[in-house]
Amino acid sequence: MRKIALEEHFSTPELENRGLVARPTRNDAIFTEIERRLRDFGESRLAAMDAAGINMSVLSLTTPGIQGEKDMATAIRLAKDVNDLLAREVQKRPQRYGGFAAVPTQDPAAAANELERAIKQLGFKGVLVNGQTNGRYLDDERFLPFWERVQELDVPLYLHPGDLPDSPAMYAGRPELEGPVWAWTADTGAHALRLIFSGLFKRLPRLKVIVGHMGETLPFLLWRIDNRFELQLGRPLAPEERPSFFFRRNFVITTSGVCDPDPLVESLAALGDDNVLFSVDYPYQDSRQAGDFLDNAPVSEAVRAKIASGNARRVLKL
What we know:
It is built from 13 helices and 8 strands. The chain is an alpha/beta fold.
């Protein structure tokens, strides 16, 4: 079964030199190979796609990427350079690659303008943001003009993990909890909930946000989030007031980095089979493993086809 993958990353030598490429492993040899694959748009990447049955990969800048840059002017330049580079690579293989824009969220107006350029001039399919920027999450009021542009352009935003803005005491002395083991999941799940509780989706109801890693645990907690929010408010919630309402309406999730049938089945039960999309998280996850996982998942062939490519075609308007 041919597939479309949405969380497939790349980097550039300049971003590596600036320390804007996360290191999720302590093993030097493994990280060296990850860096090599991040820079490659040719033989290695295409071979990995073919091994997983992936027809198209929508490529995005790896974390923390532009969001990790402190200087506003530098971030604006880097975003433009990265998007131009990605556009050139997509143009070489338009049947195999698509692009998610990188945007300089250090300046929300510049981010909105760069997104519009990337969509209208470069032909990208949406935008990916790597977490917070200089301690500010995307529910901050300053980002409203950016979100308005996202809705106007009618493209999805992939909310991806990034660097944490601080070092919480809960992780002190336990480096095992940092990065993708747990800290990124907790941070990105909280980021998604911040968007919901801010009222963003009441103001801009047509927004579509993609969350990876099987929804960063949120599909499994929707009942409790609703129930505890009712307790916090001290009154029952109407169905359209519940956090779960907005998660089901305004979010879709991908399977990136989670090759386990149990959470897949539970996510389908929680969100419906229109809201779960295939991804690998290349090169941090093995492409063949991810492809085999979907090929053998305990779902019907009709649902498998939606997850593999049908839902992505709808969300990205392919």
